[in-house]
Amino acid sequence: MSEHRNRFVFFGPPGSGKGTQAIQLSKEYEACHLSTGDMLRDAVRNQTEMGLKAKAKIDAGELVSDDIVIGIIRDSIGSPACRYGFILDGFPRTVPQAEALDQMLSDRNTSVEHVLNLGVSDEVVVKRVSGRLTHLTSGRTYNKFFKPPKVDGLDDVTGEPLTQRPDDNENIIRNRLKTYHGYADKVLGYYNQKGLVRNINGEQPISVVNEQIRSFFKK
């Protein structure tokens, strides 16, 4: 098997389904799923050099700087878990981050292969995220708009109450979308110039989106 045979950036707004797709495909193709938020938490928990720097910023109420995030990405991509490839989810968010990613991969004689952009309208994102309901014990999920429970607010199997995350409300979602749109066009423009962007309609059924993404992967 060749090193880093699948090298992808998954792009899309919150609620586009990119995280769900990345988790599934990373297991199937042995490509590590690198979610920026998860990596930061892991680095802090494991007290790595970059994790300690990140913790200092977080404890001070400051944003984690580019050099720390990039350092954590570099450490992760160089780990044995990523030897057969990686799926970046939530990174890069700026053109300088994209340039830094290119440089660190170039140092390893490799590069990003595809940027898979899952397009979903703001209104669909709002319905997807604000409609999410979860049965905490089992992890079963529902959606008020797309996949409602048989009885409003209750789990189909146990009849127990369903819960909704506090941040899954319309105002917070629209603020997150505003942040996303603030950087998305610039980063996608950077990758478009390199001919790497593959646009996928993220409003299609999950199975259809999965099949279209899968067509870019190599065994």
Automatic annotation (TrEMBL):
One GO MF term attached to the UniProt entry: ATP binding
Record keywords, A-Z: Kinase, Nucleotide-binding, Transferase
Domain named Adenylate kinase active site lid: residues: 132-167
Coiled coil regions, renumbered to chain: none
Keyword Kinase attached: yes
Protein's UniProt keywords contain Cytoplasm: no
Protein family (similarity comment): Belongs to the adenylate kinase family.
Protein name: Adenylate kinase
